[in-house]
Automatic annotation (TrEMBL):
Binding site for FMN: D57, T103, H153, Y157, S229
Luciferase-like domain: residues covered: 27-391
Protein family: Belongs to the NtaA/SnaA/DszA monooxygenase family.
PANTHER family: ALKANESULFONATE MONOOXYGENASE-RELATED, C2H2 FINGER DOMAIN TRANSCRIPTION FACTOR (EUROFUNG)-RELATED
Protein name per its UniProtKB record: LLM class flavin-dependent oxidoreductase
Chloroplast among keywords: no
Record-linked CDD domains: Nitrilotriacetate_monoxgenase (cd01095)
GO molecular function: monooxygenase activity; oxidoreductase activity, acting on paired donors, with incorporation or reduction of molecular oxygen
UniProt superkingdom: Bacteria
Amino acid sequence: MAKKILLNAFDMNSAMHNAHGLWRHPLNQRNYTSLDYWVEQAKLLERGLFDAIFFADVLGYYDTYQGSRDAALRDAVQVPNNDPTLLISAMAYATKHLGFAVTVPTTYEMPFAHARRMSTLDHLTGGRIGWNIVTSFLPSAARNFGMDKMIAHDDRYEMAEEYLEVVYKLWEGSWEDDAVVRDLARGMYADPAKVHEIRHEGAHFRVAGPHISEPSPQRTPLLLQAGASGRGREFSAKHAECVFIDSHSFESTKFYVDDIRAKAVANGRRPEDVKVFMATNIVVGRTREEAEEKLREMTRLSSPEGPLALYGGFSGIDLSQYDPDDYMGYKATDHGQASVARFTTQSEKRLKVGEVIETVRKIGGRNSLILGSPEEVADGMQAWMENTGIDGFNLANLILPGTFQDVVDLVVPVLQERGLYKTEYDPGTLREKLFGGSGRLPERHPAASFRNLP
Ligand SMILES: Cc1cc2nc3c(=O)[nH]c(=O)nc-3n(C[C@H](O)[C@H](O)[C@H](O)COP(=O)(O)O)c2cc1C
């Protein structure tokens, strides 16, 4: 039987996420400062049996392009941008099964406070929380957290390794399973002998513990990651349960999927311990013509400079500094390395800067685009699944709520008819829904080694 497709909605608590210019679209109702808007979105996604909504986040402006933040502000390039974690309680209250994955960087948020916030949300959602672990790629974010410049790319991952050790100790090791006794007769809420300091002393963090939250349903939230550089993939393969990748072709996607699973196995894990989600845009109409018309209208309204501001932040490359006829060359930056490699060292042919600009401007150019009637879109999704080994899709949004509404109303029923998509949620926490089992991280995951703290 074919593997069931997993679906994430990819979004941001921002005026615009990755579809620059489309805030001007007449159907755009992205009222991101309204709680009603987010609650309605959660209900819609749950109606479509989505596995989770995944909130991206950044902590600075995209100011590499033209050496300025102006283009980002003009076009709402992930700015203004509010805290995504604060939406989750309300969205969870209105739903029963939808998961919530939230991006929090290891470079700027202190691990003790982060661990408490995740535990709180895991309690309040009944175990539906995931954490997208990022090291953050914007120099402007570093300047907002007391640094003159960004910590170097690979050093950020080293710091992230230690960060994870701290939070694993807090989540997995600090409170024993039976530490909370709520014993009325003895007058004891928690047994002090079963709650442990973590006494972490490392190169970057000193945390005494114990964890200040009692164990939540999942303890460690579901762990997600999207680093695509060599170092990023090493990190993912060790820690991540869900990996997000940008996708450009069957071949490159299959390469990443196989590579991440092989690296997971080298880390003592199993290939199926990692679910891979491919970023994609879906434009669907009742007919192909209707879908094509939707894309034409979106293309007409899309912004020429917003995508360049975004690419500047991801890559550290300011495309405005080059002649469009220059060839694009590889430059190692401390932003995200995969965004530069894609158009240089990993490209099949040498690309001119003008060609790169054209690609990043195109809707779906940065990742993939599946367009057509509901049946054609389902065919497209099926082909990606069969040819690459991915587990599902991380659905980018173009116009909200339209993009997700179309998928729920038009595509999901076709996938269900073909037996490629669930018809009801499995019970349990987010981890149990995705992986089955006990809902705890397996013994072969590195977090497990911090379970029995003295
Ligand atoms: C689908 C997807 C979503 C991402 N979301 C975020 C995000 O919300 N915030 C962030 O700082 N980085 C985000 N990233 C960036 C990566 O986590 C990573 O930091 C970046 O790719 C640079 O690391 P690398 O050089 O290892 O690729 C995302 C990447 C992908 C592919």
